[in-house]
Amino acid sequence: IQAARIACPDASATQASVKTRVALEASLARWSGSADLNVATIGSSFGSLSRLRGKMDFSGDRHRTGGRVALRSEALASREIHVSSAAVSGRYTLGETSDFQGEVAVQGARLPSSLLSRVAVFNNAGQGSPVAPLVRQLARALGEAGRGFGGSAKLEVAAVGDRTGLRLQQLDLATHSGARLRFGRGTGLGL
Fold first, then answer.
1. Per residue in 14-31, pLDDT tens?
2. Smallest Cα–Cα separation from 154: which of 110, 89, 69?
3. Can you say how many angstroms the Cα of residue 131 is from the centroid of all Cα atoms in its chain?
4. Which contiguous run of DSSP H or E holds residue 113?
5. Sign of CA dihedral 103, 109, 115, 120
């Protein structure tokens, strides 16, 4: 399937190519297959991304379908973050219970100036107290970290009905300024 432009009420894509291979049982009760994706741009109210490419496979029936996914993109932009490249890979299931277990990685990430300006407000917090220099340095360090970072996270997301749970199993972030945050020796963090 190829299209120069695909438009829906909430999203659009340009230069989309999807190569799909599907095997169906004679009864049409079960299916399996794979899809190779290549999309020049995707835009929506959430943001935009460019050069999405990758592969996903699937197997299932009318109650449940699951498989593996491995996708990469170049520039990704939203109100909350801008990145020069992003990747997601792992296993997924869609059905009454939907879930994903895998890894998400970003490079060349930066937070928007609107968010960084909120951190800058803390530069003067604690003024006149002994902790003022420490607070000022922390605010500067957080601002610098938000201007450039990259890393990866291993996570699990599960949705049942209107409830969604997230378990962060591992996190490894490094900022361009040299700070590093690592998490992941134990059972993880659940939200």
1. 999 999 999 999 898 999
2. 89
3. 36
4. helix 113-120
5. positive
C-beta atoms surrounding 25 within 10 Å = 10
For residue 186 the two structure tokens come to 């134990």
Tell me the pLDDT tens digit for each residue of 78-115: 988 999 999 999 999 999 999 999 999 999 999 988 88
Assign 186 a pLDDT band (cuts: 50, 70, 90).
low
Give the global pTM. 0.81
Residues in the chain: 191
Q: Which two tokens stand for residue 83?
A: 């990145």
What is the maximal distance between C-alpha atoms in the chain?
A: 78
Element (H, E) at 131: none
Contact between 56 and 35 (Cβ < 8 Å): yes
Q: Which amino acid is at 4?
A: A
Chain centre distance of CA 92: 14
Asked if 15 and 4 touch (Cβ cutoff 8 Å), the reply is yes
